Amino acid sequence: MKTISTFEQFYLKIKGNRWYWLFSIFCRLALAYAFIFAGMVKIVGERFASGLSEVHPMGAYLVALHHTGYYYTFIGIAQVIAAVLLLIPRTVTLGALLYFPIIVNIWLLSYAVRFEGSFVTSPLMVLATLYLLVWNYDRLRYILPFAQFSDLGIVQKPVKYNTKFPFLFFAFVVLTVVGTIAFARFGYEAMPRNTLSDCKQRFENTQNEAAGFVFCECIHTAGQPLEACLKEFKSVKD
Prior knowledge:
Blueprint: H1 2-15, H2 18-43, H3 57-66, H4 70-87, H5 92-113, H6 121-135, H7 137-140, H8 167-186, H9 196-203, H10 209-220, H11 226-237
């Protein structure tokens, strides 16, 4: 209980700071925009990332998903509903709860197939959704497995916000973004990229050029699974 009390004291300070509040609005708008766009593509029946080759690991998945009919449309509707809920102040908490499992699924899928299109954005969107969930802790805490609750109640918007700029927090945000981009660029030796030429370009004039070209052809020409192409890449490289 002492730990919870300490957190809630910190939480009240955060809720009273204008910069944290503005960041929560930014997260809501950015997340809503992303899902409205992605959801509408599915609702109107278009294949998402239609320019991606069907033999690409992510392209093959999206083609199969597109062929699921009303399930594909349902995902789009769920995304748009989550986005709209985020835009309405009274339903932000519900929107974040709906948004979270969807974006976690997208993030894991992006990393599983190393899809360049959402390799950076999806983990950042997961973190932004987590921020909104923490921001709405006063509403969410009643569904958490606590033995007892404090008398925190629903935190009301302050009459006057604290305007002290949280340099440490925003430094962490910047470092997180930079770190995510750096991992996307240097985290893996072999990335399928979106096209054969882009894939090969990464390996040109490097010590793994021959193995890299084999990997790219395996993905974009032969249409083999990512895991099989990675094994071939390693065998040629070694």
